[in-house]
Amino acid sequence: MRATLMYGAGDVRVENVPDPVIKHPTDALVRITASCVCGSDLHPYGQMKPQDGPARMGHEFIGVVEDTGPEVTTVKRGDLVVAPFAISDNTCVFCREGLHTSCSHPQANFWDGEPEEGGQAEAVRVPLADGTLVKLPVAPDSALVPSLLTLSDVFGTGYHAAVSGGVNERTGVTVIGDGAVGLLAVLSAKRLGAEQIILMGRHRARTDLGREFGATDVVPARGEEGIAAVRDLTGGQGTHVVLEAVGHMPAYEQAVGILRPGGVISRVGVPQYEEAPIGFGSLFRHNLRLAGGPAPVRAHIEELMPDILDGAIDPGKVFDATTDLDGVPAAYQDMADRKSLKVLIKP
Amino acid sequence: MRATLMYGAGDVRVENVPDPVIKHPTDALVRITASCVCGSDLHPYGQMKPQDGPARMGHEFIGVVEDTGPEVTTVKRGDLVVAPFAISDNTCVFCREGLHTSCSHPQANFWDGEPEEGGQAEAVRVPLADGTLVKLPVAPDSALVPSLLTLSDVFGTGYHAAVSGGVNERTGVTVIGDGAVGLLAVLSAKRLGAEQIILMGRHRARTDLGREFGATDVVPARGEEGIAAVRDLTGGQGTHVVLEAVGHMPAYEQAVGILRPGGVISRVGVPQYEEAPIGFGSLFRHNLRLAGGPAPVRAHIEELMPDILDGAIDPGKVFDATTDLDGVPAAYQDMADRKSLKVLIKP
């Protein structure tokens, strides 16, 4: 079959690879019908060293079950399914608490940690299929597929940011980042009842979509100027919750700067730093809190899917381009150049 | 009058200073009847540069109101009062939310930020007396004074750690630090219903008091050995909540190491660092959270005082020595040498 491999920064290729096969009795084989490129794929696309490649790419997909191992019981051949970006058994103590990204099963993993599997391909072997896959009640060509595909990562991640940040009717929210996760964090904050949702981003087409998703204010400025603008919008007090969907240090520093005393920074952008200021001069003085991490999107699928199925929300609007597998290398470049917000792949 | 001044690391003196006077209509003058030395006073005692001194010391005290400005209404001459370590108006938007340490009044401050006032003295001018002072329904010589004095900082700080960490009947708790705040964090966790309370500390007399306050386990080991011991005690999973009452980097690193996925580090030890690891390899990977800061002890006084008045708890047991003002320099040294846990001052 054909699959996407990254050989290093800026070097993505679509090549022939061996077809996936059932290896464990809990595996399923899935023929992929829709997948996509993630903002987090752009981190290695910007900096991966050749000696770390080639790596199979893609951790968001919808597909049709082709085969299942003898222990798989919740999905069967012919089912259309969605897979979260993390493989989990959905039964361990952490999964039962809704923290599937810390699943304690030995086979639990991120797709990005599976060297021979990836979602930007024609097919994939899914470990722990009972825990990982969720059946979708639509056909593979449904118009809802783009929105349902966001359940595999970006919508669930934006929602996790909002839930981890404690967003509710009484919190003002600021979202840093106008990528797909940031925009869907806006949608999530709106869903959780936040009245003021400030979106910090400077790409007009994206912030317009953010307004459509529920942003009440848009701040294109960054750094000190951006901080001042958010403080102005919040009566000088700062914002209760920052949903940080970027992962770079300037976004973190901006988050600290715009936060209200007692407020919380909820991070879902994968940090591209390890050390950061958290002492008296940054977080401690005013009881600022820090939350977030890899989103247990599996925990949110059942909750979010009905709103998509009944048309109440349309998170799939974050896809502004579609390609086949041949176009995947160009899709990476378009997203890196910010020509595309998020590219849907029809293998 | 006589007051305590710090001239630099290891150099504490008791000297004659001008008597305090009413400066603002919202001030009160208080004749101090009981105060103490704080673990946080040991930070400057260890490292203060002479050019930063002399500094008036002491931020925990009980005393009798001697005079009040014309706008003071809630306390009057002759009242016995306790003062939190932070001056606040108790009416601003942050105080009303229980975050008195972020009070927005221009005169709000920490006692340590008031250059001409301090609690380790014979008397003190109290700004924003209506907001700051709380009347005590006992006599100045009551046997309850030591416990009531802990409401000014160490008990409220331990309690803030537990509340900020979300301690409840379903959380396992580990307290790092066997100083007065750590021990009262144990008492606080017990009060909030935690069943497992692990105390990390190596001073037997202190950890024994910790057991009396509710610790179910004591871990004297530190570093990797201490982390392994806590993991053993928590079925390998780690602890839900860490109450970090030290403030040094090794305590933070230990906190990260013993935390359960999704768990929270609640810091009340004033951080002696600004940068620390919070990226994918430390907090992010398993959704570890960070909370805490200077405790709004004013918010907790009314809640905690009844338990002291009716004898249900005795947080004053953290005082293991008493001195007059002349003995204050020696009290600092005894606490620095860990000969004394916490020294009560009877001016």
TrEMBL record, chains A, B:
Coiled coil (residue ranges): none
Origin superkingdom: Bacteria
InterPro entries noted in UniProt: ADH-like_C, ADH-like_N, ADH_Zn_CS, GroES-like_sf, NAD(P)-bd_dom_sf
Residues in Alcohol dehydrogenase-like C-terminal domain copies: 180-292
Naturally occurring in which organism (per UniProt): Streptomyces dangxiongensis
Entry's family note: Belongs to the zinc-containing alcohol dehydrogenase family.
A GO term for molecular function: zinc ion binding
Lyase is among the record's keywords: no
SUPFAM superfamilies noted in UniProt: GroES-like, NAD(P)-binding Rossmann-fold domains
The protein, known as: IMP dehydrogenase
Listed cofactors: Zn(2+)
Keyword set includes Metal-binding: yes
Ranges of residues in domain Alcohol dehydrogenase-like N-terminal: 25-137
Taxonomic path: Bacteria, Bacillati, Actinomycetota, Actinomycetes, Kitasatosporales
Entry keywords, A to Z: Metal-binding, Oxidoreductase, Zinc
